[in-house]
Structures are given as C-alpha cells and as structure tokens.
Amino acid sequence: MNQVLRYIDNQLHMESVALDVVAEQVGTPFYCYSKADIQQRVSACKAAFKVLDATIHYAVKANCNLSILRLMAAAGLGADVVSDGELERALVAGIPAEKIIFSGVGKRKDEMLAALNAGIAQFNLESIPELEALIALCESRNKTAGVSLRINPDVDGATHRHITTGVKGSKFGIPMEQLHHALRRIGESEYLQLRGLAVHIGSQIVTAEPYRRVCERLCGWVTDLRAAGHVIEHLDLGGGFGIDYGDGDYLDFESVAQVMQEALQGMDNLHIAIEPGRSLVGNAGVLVSEVIYRKEADPLPFLILDAGMNDLMRPALYQASHPIQPLLASEKGQEQVNVVGPICESTDFFHKAITLPEIAQGERVAMLQAGAYGAVMASSYNSRAIIPEVMIDEERFEMIRRRITNKNLLEFELVM
Ligand code: LLP
Question: In this predicted model, what pLDDT tens digit does every residue of 353-376 receive, in sequence order?
Fold first, then answer.
C-alpha cells in the first residue's frame, strides 16, 4: 500500500481523512488524491535529477486537474502539453509559458498558433509536414519558435504494446532517414530556432536499461550532428518511469537519473529535460467505489461496483491491474472473487479471480494507483456522469472537480 494510505481504527484513511467520510459527502464513485504524496514525488524527482541539472516538464495528460497543475507550478515545474486544452490549463494554473513544451504527433495549426501567441519554450516536432506548417505559420505572423525534433530511436521500452512508442513502425517521431532534411529546413528558416532532439520511448517502463540505450544512441547522433555543424543544445528525454501497480515492479527516479547521467557523460553544453507524468501523480490517487451488488455465481462470486470502465479505462484498455482495498478493514476471511463494473461490456472487468478480504454488498472499496490516466481518460459511455475528483490535504479535503451530471451532459444536445 502507498505511504499515505493506512487503516486507522479499521477505516482506510488517506493522509488523516477516512475515505468513508469523503464518500458520505461526495457520493461514490469518485477519484481522491493525496496532496502530500504528489508533493513528495515531485521533490524526489527534483532531487534525483539534480545530477543532470535537468528541467522537469510535467506531462499534463497524466492528470490535468487544475489543482494538481497548481501544485506542479508551485514546485517550479514546467509542463509538457499535447493540445490547446492542455496548454490553456497549464497557463491558467500558473505554469509560465517559457517552461512549456508542446509535444504530439498531430498539432493543428490553430493549436500551434495558440502556443506561439503564448510564447511557449519549444515545439517538439514529429514530422516534416508539421515542421513546414509551423514555418508557414511563423512567417505569416512574423513570430519565431524554438523547436526540437522528436526522433524515433528504435528502442523498445519493453512495456505494454499499446504504450510503447519508440520502436520502428510506431507513428511517433521523425524517422531517422528524414532527420537531415528536417534539420536543413530548420536551418533555412529564419523563424525556427533549433534547440535539439527529443525522444519518448513509452510509458510504465520499469527498468532503466532502455533509457541507457536511448542516451547512448543520442550521444552518437548529437556528436555526428555537431560535427556536421548543427548546434544541438537541448535533449528532451521524455517520461515513462513506471510505478508499482502491486507487482513490485517500478522505476525509481534515482536509478533512471543515474543511468542517464552515466550514458551522457562527456557530452558538454547539453541541457536535459524530462517529461514525467505517471510517476508524479499515479501513486497519489485512488478511485473509491461502492459494491452495489454481490452476485453469487459459479465458479466465483461477482462484486459489481458502481465504478465502471468509463471511469477507469486502464484495465479494459491495457489489461492493467489496480490493487483493491476495502475501506473497512475486515476481520473476516479471504475469498476469491471477480470484480466488475456495471457497463454492458465484457471488458468492464477490474479483476478476475482475485483474492480479497470478504467484502459485503454495500461496502466501499478503493482502487489504488489511480492518480494517472484515470480521471483524464473517463468518458460518459452508457450515459454515465463524469465522476468528481477530491484532493486531501492532511485532515482537510475538497472537491477539485464537481460531478459532470447527466443534466449537464444533456445541456449540450440539440434535438432536431
Ligand atoms: N512525454 C510524451 C511525449 C508522452 O507521450 C508521454 C505519455 C509522456 C511524456 C508521459 O509519460 P509517463 O511519464 O506518464 O509514462 N494511458 C496510458 C499511458 C499513455 C502515455 C502516453 N504518453 C496508461 O494509462 O498507461
């Protein structure tokens, strides 16, 4: 269990608040985050990456709630954004434009314009057509832009196939054979300022080795490019550091920073940036849900939750497993059960044949490590409301996003 979750008088607490108390007030299901946990992760990340003097750009996609972005801003972090929506949120939360990197494989012109107008630090470009579009935009508005080229280093992060991004054939990054063309075009334009190279090899990577391989390859490329007269001052190494989803596998900040530092030794005048998302917020969040029904069945009973795959997509999409804890510590025995949501889909399954303390109908449970790629990936499938988010700060808690109700959803529909 993570550090900020513990049973006090048999009740599961996050920091000093009993989650059942929050549930009574907010209603289930809801996401709940620990402010202290996020702050601790951010401090640990900053401390570990000091060896590289790296700047940290929080990957907003992991959890874009304004209150969380404000914590990142207060800690001095920058942001990695992939849409005008994320850009707007980062700015509203107080992350300065000059600390914002715009990533993504399909940036629209209007989005790039918004970023140019805001004066962001850098665009990580992923294709020649995108580069041409940015040049044209800059020319027409007489604006300059800092750019890095995201390359596909062909290194396997050894993670789930849906979240590996750095191998040949993936849609991400500029293919190596087009790199020189891209660099030439940047050199020809007086509006683009080359900063360097960027990579991101995947997410939920649990060993440091892939990062070593990427850094070694980057060293070679940077040396060659510099020899050819290009000024490369910046390396963006992406995110992807894995967290412990209960199987004991994760990548700690120190190991990965150390490996990067070793592999990059001897490279002078290189500014390093990283873009962690999951590793800063994943551990801090739980999804609290109620067992609506306990359905006896052969071979195993089903615990049917009021949270479904629309609230937490990761199990359905990546066969991810989020550990479950009852909010009430049970003195009863253990049993094997299936844990499912209420959605009309067979993939709406949280756990198959999991051993849990006996949990009765009407009891509540917390699904752990749900702070990253949880709330942000929720949908209203089956016309379900978008569930609220709550932040806990020691003995205080506050709703940081209200429930988006069925009534709210209906307001956007026009009947023809
Ligand atoms: N930088 C770039 C360019 C990215 O594409 C990503 C994540 C990150 C940074 C942050 O990666 P992180 O540190 O969070 O691993 N929905 C999936 C994860 C998708 C990650 C996409 N890119 C999941 O729930 O596991």
Answer: 999 999 999 999 999 999 999 999
